[in-house]
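user: At home tonight, take the chain set out below, taking as long as you need, and be ready to discuss the fold:
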Amino acid sequence: TQFMSWALMGNGAWDYPANTRGYTDALAIEYITPKNELRYSLALVPTEANGNTLDYKIAKAHSHTLEYTYNYSVNAKAGTVRILAFYTIAKMGNYNQSIKLNPAAPDITATRKYSNNKYGLGINLEQSLSKNIGAFLKASWNDGNNETWAFTEIDHTVSIGTVAKGTKWKRVEDEVGLAYVISGLSTPHKNYLEAGGKGFLLGDGALNYGPEQLAELYYSAALIKKSLFLSGTYQFILHPGYNKDRGPVNVFSVREIGRAHV
C-alpha cells in the first residue's frame, strides 16, 4: 500500500524464508507487552533458490528469525525500534567455490550442499514527527558468502524516508511518501557476477560494479473512503543491478488498492 521497492518493504538484506509466492510453513512464538515485543520463528525454506517447493528435510534446511521491538515516545510522539537477526541453512551454493571450480563460467548450482548457510542483522527505526508526519530509517546486512535463497540479491542496504497524511490539504486519507535507498553486494557475490556467474535475479555475463541507488516518491489518493485507493509512484534508479554500465532508469507505476475494513 506504500513504497514498491523491495528494499523499502522490509529489511532488504534479510533473505527471509519463503517460496516463490512469499509463503512458508513455520512455528512462531511471540511475547508482547505495551513497550516490549519479542518474536521467534522456525520456518521452512525452498528446495532451490527462489523455488516454489518447500524443503521438508527440516534437520538440513530451515531458517531461524529473532526480532525484538521496543516501543517508546518522545514528547508524546510515538517511536519504535526493531532489531532482527536471522540464520538460514539450506542446500545453497557458494560464490568463492563456484569461481574456483570454474573461473571462466562459474555456476552457483554446481556447489550446492546442505551445510551452507546465511546469517544477518537488521534494524528498523520509526518516529512520529507530528500528528500527520512520520520518518523511518532501515539498515540490514548479511554475510553474503552463499547464494541468495529466497528474497532478493541484496547483501547490505540502508534506507531513509518519510510519509505524510494529506490532512494539510484536506485529504485526510491521502498519503505521500518519499524515500532513498542504497544497496550493495558482498565481495564474493560481486566477484561471482563479475566472472560471469548468474543468480536468480542478477547476471548478464559481466559486471561493472557500483552500489544500486533508488529514490522513490508515491502518492496514494482515496477514491472511496477507507476502501479504495489509487496510487501513483515514481522511482529513479542509479546503477540498476549494481552495474555502472546500466541506467539511470526512470520507472512510473499506477496501482489500485482495495482495503477491507470492519
